[in-house]
Amino acid sequence: MGRSSTLYISRKPATAFVVMGLCWGAFAAYVPQIKASVGVGDALFGAVLSMASLGLIAAMWVAPPLDVRLGRRGIAVASVILGTAFLLPGLSYNPVFLGVAMLAVALASGLADILMNARVSELEARHKRSLMNFNHAMFSFAYAGGAVFSGIGRAFETPPIAIFGLLWVVILGLSLAMQTPRSPRRKEGEARPGLPLGIIIPGGLIVLLAFMVEGATDTWSALHIERTLAGAPTEGALGPAMLGLTMGIGRYAGQVLSNRMRDSVLLSGAALLTALGAGIAALASEPWVAYLGFGTLGLGVSVIAPTALALTGRRIPRQDRTVAIARVSVIGFSGFFVGPPIMGLVSEFSSLRYSFAAMGVLILLVLPLLIPLRRI
């Protein structure tokens, strides 16, 4: 089956991945302006963002029963909730409001992420083919588009709430095309006793490391270019845009590579490439060198999370798949809210250069975590 059939099979969850990419890309481009509007330093800004992890914990418990209750409309409803939550950061004017806003964003993002990945995992099992990298590529391309669009908006001094409001209207329209069939699962949406933690924990930690580096680069790449390298706002917006574009290309390539090599080999190479990109970004002296670093990082980190999620989904019985994906997702998705505070803390006491270097070292922890998964 070719590319067109891949798109057709996963078109409904892929639309939801596009929605999430547009939201996070727009947010990344507006981070410098949002940070300035709340008037805090790097460490406190990172700490405020870390409050969102509480929303992820809630999403882990809410998603499985809500999945059962919403049925075919699950990812459509989750996408509209996500678009609504992203209106709040655009209205933030102090750290407390931003903290509450990011809590809502994390809950909505976690819910959407769990349901989207569960639907893709079910489609992989039904059609006996890899689809996860393709769907995550759709997120990345949409992320790049959202960042570029919002960067243009910043150039024309458009307030963030106007951009997020426009995205909300777009999301409302796209949600009409997201109803998906679901495989049978337990009535209560609860896992059976003995859910394989030996798969879920290392898989979740690998996803966490990938999303931690991705989230940190999402949040701080524009600031790194504008503050460290004295770039203009439009140049800053190109940082997350470059990340999103290369992650889309990397995941598209990963869709092919995942069918031609062992997952452990693919993940090892991806971790090394990510570390190299983080190092280039850390040492950059000009914006274009930073773009090269973000691009290299994006190519590497792009395939880590979807490949680890696919590994988990293939080993879990279909009636428990949403619960298992929820566990992996909440462990992994928390990386989006762990990475930025780590970056902010390191930057507060040194610089963003050292922050990106730290991300490059941390992603190498993927290598030992692969040891228990090599037999898969």
Query: Class, according to the CATH hierarchy?
Result: Mainly Alpha
Helix content: over 70%
Strand content: under 5%
Order of helices and strands: HHHHHHHHHHHHHHHHH
Radius of gyration from CA coordinates: 19 Å
The 3D shape can be described as globular
Oligomeric nature of the chains: single chain
Could you tell me how far the N terminus lies from the C terminus, measured between alpha carbons in angstroms?
24 Å
Supply the CATH superfamily name: MFS general substrate transporter like domains
* Count of DSSP-assigned helices: 17
CATH topology: Growth Hormone, Chain: A
Low-confidence stretches are 186-191
Tally the beta strands.
0
From the coordinates shown, what is the CATH architecture?
Answer: Up-down Bundle
* Computed structural class: mainly alpha
> Can you tell me the number of structural domains?
1
